[in-house]
C-alpha cells in the first residue's frame, strides 16, 4: 500500500473491499484473518474456535472455510450475526458473565484451540460500553481466552498503539510461549490497529487475577521511564503495576482505566484540603461529611443550605453552584487556617510607623521584592509543569506510542477518550488548561527548563499561603475563568458530537435499506461497510484526518492544540509576536476543552447562560467570532444549528424544553411518530417487520402490547440524574429484530415511489395552477364591477375588492355535499329538510346501501389484483 489512500468515502473502497465482495465475505476484515492465518497457520489444525466480537461475521466465514469440517465455531457479538453454516452465534456483551455462561454451555467440557478477538468499542451504542476502552476490551477477551483456551492454543487479538499497548504485550508474554505483534497488509495504514498473535498458551494452574484486571494492568507508565531506570521499556512498569499496586505512582491523566465505578463519594475533608479542587469536583458524585470534624463544618454559617444541597449531588450542579462550592472551600480553608490571609498592607505600614520610622524608599523596595519573589515562584511552578509535560511527551515518543505531531494533541483526541465525554469531566478540562499553557512553552520556549527539587518544595509552600486579599481574589477569579473555559469547551464538544450524531443518523436513515446485508449489493453505502468492518477506531481516525483537511474555521475552535499547529504553519510571524501570542493565550480565558463544553451545555445549565455567564459569555462570543457557524449555533441553539448544516436534515423532535425531556411517557414523541406514520407510512424496517408479523398472524396485537412492557419501559425515572436519563433515552432501547422480508418490502415501496410517473405529477400541478389562475381572473372581473359601481364609497369598494382578491388567491374549498337519507315524511318529497345547511343530496336508505356495497366490491377487486 505504497500510495496514499484517498480520504473520501469512495477512496475507502480499496482492493480488499472489492475482493471481499467478490468472494462473498461480509467484511473486508476477513482478509486480515486470512493473512494472519497464512503467516501463523492456526486455523487448519483447530477443532474449536471462539470469535469474540464477530459481527458481521467475516472472521467466522474465514474460520468456517479454513477449519476442518465438523469443527466447532462460536461467534459472539453485541449485534446479531446473520447465520453462517456450521457456526453457532450469540448476541451478547463479551464483558458480561452471561457471555461466559453461554460459551461454557455450548462448549461443555471442551476447550478451544483458537480464540479470536477483533473487537472495537462501539461508540454511541451503549453508554456503559463506551466507557470501556479498546484495551479494556482486549483484556476482557483475554479473560475469556484464559478460561476457554486449550494448553498450547492460540489467541489472536487486535490492539491499538496507545499507552496501554506495552502493558498488554507484557501480560500476554506472561501467559503465552510466543507473542508476536503484526500488521497484516489488509489493515489500513491509517489505522492504529495491530494484531497480536499469542501462541502456545501456557495454561498456568493459577493466574494472578491482577493480570486480567484493567486497574492494575493499565496504570501509568510515564514516570519510571522518565526517571531513568527503565528508559524505553515498559515491561518493568507493567510489572510494577501488576505486582506493586500499593506503591503510589502518579495517576494517569483522566479517569483510572478500568475503574468502572460510576458513583464516587469524596470526603469533604479531601475536597477542602485538596490542591486540585476542580479535579475532585470533576471526579466525584457527592461530597460527604462523615468524620467528626467534617460534621462540625455543617454547623458553620458559611456552610449554607445551598452548599449542603450542592454537595449532595455534584452531577446536577450548574456553573454557579460550582463557583459557590469553590468559594466555600476557600472560606473554610481560611477558617481552618490552611490559607493564611495576610494582614492588609496599610495596617502593616501603620504599625511600622508607630514602632519605628522607616524610610519610605526602603518600604517600596521591600514591597517590590516581595512581589518579585511571588512572580518568580509562580514562574517556577509553570516551568515545572511545562517540563513535566515535555518529559512525558518525549518519553511517549521514545516508547513509540505517539507520533511527534501528536504531542500535546493526544488529550484532545476524541478517539482516545471515547465514552468519557458524557461523564462529568472537569478534570479533563483542567488538564487541558494546564497543558495549553505548558505546551506553548514546549514549542515556543524551548529553553524553559524544569525547576529543581528545591524549587518544587518552594512551590508547595507557596501554594498553601495566600499572601493578600488581592491574591485571594486572583485565585477566585482564576478558578472562575477556568470554569468558564471548561463550559465553553464542553459546549463546543457537544455541538460537535451532536452534529456528528446527526450526520450519522442521516446516513443511517439513508443507508437503512443497504445496511441489512453487511457489504450490500450496491457500492453506495461505504459508511456502513466501514462501521461493520473496522469498528469505531478507524472511523475516528478517518474523521480525524478529515478534520485536519477541513476548513480553518473548524480549527479556530479546536482548542489550543490545533491553534498550535496553525502557529507552526506561520513561520513569517516574528518571534516576538509569537511570544506575545503565547502570553496572550495564557492570560486570556484559556481555550476550553470539548469535554467541558459537553458537560455545561446540558439542559440544566441553560438557565445559567443569561445570568451566571454574563461577561464571560460575552467575551467568549467575541473570541468565537471567527467562526460564523459556531456563532450561529451558539445564538440560535441546537435546532437552528441543524438548519444550517450541509446535509439532509433528519426530522428531530424538539427536546429543547425541560418538559419534553421529562415527558416520561414519551407521549409527544409517540404522537409525532403516529402523525408521521399516517402521512408517510412505515419507514423503518423494525416497524415493517412487526406489521408483517401482525398481518401473517405470527403475532397478535395483545402480544405486541405485552412485549412493549419490558425492562426498558418499566424503569422508574424518579430521582435519577438528568444526564443518566438523557443517556438512557438514547441507548437503553430494546433490540427489535428485522426480517429480510421487511427490508425487501421497504425497498419495493421506495422503488414504487421512485417510479411514480413524473408526467402525471406535472399534469396535476398544471391543473392546479390553471384552477388558481381562473379563480384569480374571476375575482378580478368581480373587482372591476365593484369598482365601476357608483353608489359605494371608496373605502367600501376597497374593502370589498380586498375580500374578493383574498378569496381569489386562496385555494377554493371543495364544497361538501351532505348525504341525507330520506325518511318518513321526507320520502319522495322535494325541498330542503329541516336543520340541513349547505349542499345536500337526498337519497333513500336502499340507494345508500347499494352505493356502499358497490364501493366495497370495487375496493376488494383492486386489492385482489
Ligand atoms: C471490527 S468489528 C468485528 C469484525 C469481525 N471480525 C468480522 O470480520 O466481521 C468489531 C465488533 O466488535 C463488537 N463489539 C464491540 N464491543 C463489544 C462487546 N463488548 N461485546 C461484544 N462485541 C463487541 C462490535 O459490535 C463490532 O461488531
From TrEMBL:
Signal peptide: none annotated. Residues 441-461, 514-594, 610-659, 827-865 are annotated as: Disordered. Residues 25-201 form the Ribosomal RNA methyltransferase FtsJ domain. Residues 854-865 have a biased composition (Basic residues). It is found in: Nucleus, Nucleolus. Residues 536-546 have a biased composition (Basic and acidic residues). S-adenosyl-L-methionine binds at residues 57, 59, 77, 93, 118. Residues 245-396 form the DUF3381 domain. Keywords: Coiled coil, Methyltransferase, Nucleus, Ribosome biogenesis, rRNA processing, S-adenosyl-L-methionine, Transferase. The active site is at residue 158. Residues 547-557 have a biased composition (Acidic residues). The keyword Transferase applies. Belongs to the class I-like SAM-binding methyltransferase superfamily. RNA methyltransferase RlmE family. SPB1 subfamily. PANTHER family: PRE-RRNA 2'-O-RIBOSE RNA METHYLTRANSFERASE FTSJ3, RIBOSOMAL RNA METHYLTRANSFERASE. This is Uncharacterized protein.
